[in-house]
Design brief:
This protein has 126 residues and is of the alpha+beta class. Helices cover 28% and strands 20% of the residues. It has 2 domains: 44 residues, no CATH class; 65 residues, no CATH class. It is built from 4 helices and 4 strands, in the order E-E-H-H-E-E-H-H. The N and C termini lie far apart (53 Å). Bound molecules: zinc ion (2 copies). One zinc ion binds next to loops.
Length: 126
Amino acid sequence: MHLVAGFASSGARWRAVCSCGYTTTPRVDERRALAALHTEHELSVPVCGLCGHDYTGRSWRQLRDVDLRILASGPAGDQFLACRDLPQSCRDGAAQRQMHLDRAAREGFGLPVPPPRLRVVPGGRR
Ligand SMILES: [Zn+2]
Ligand SMILES: [Zn+2]
């Protein structure tokens, strides 16, 4: 996932840093560095992967600190963006898409990990 993570100073100049670790070459100010990041590097479309809410148009700081967080799911650790506080609308969206949050994602949201589902094994008793 590629969201603006912030800036790093480089002498009197600034580099913009992507959440993936990509860093621009030094620019005279933060604004130029940010513009460089947009042109040099393709940033992710800010859409929640669970409910589909589109955060396009928000400032990068808003996206990073308020709107979104990066989650990983599945054994391969595929990354996706999700509404930061996982509102009910987002959970409903996730349920409709039949997405299952894994343990790490749940812990990222501070949600309790569900108990294991027990089921009766047919013919198990003699
Ligand atoms: Zn990136
Ligand atoms: Zn969402």
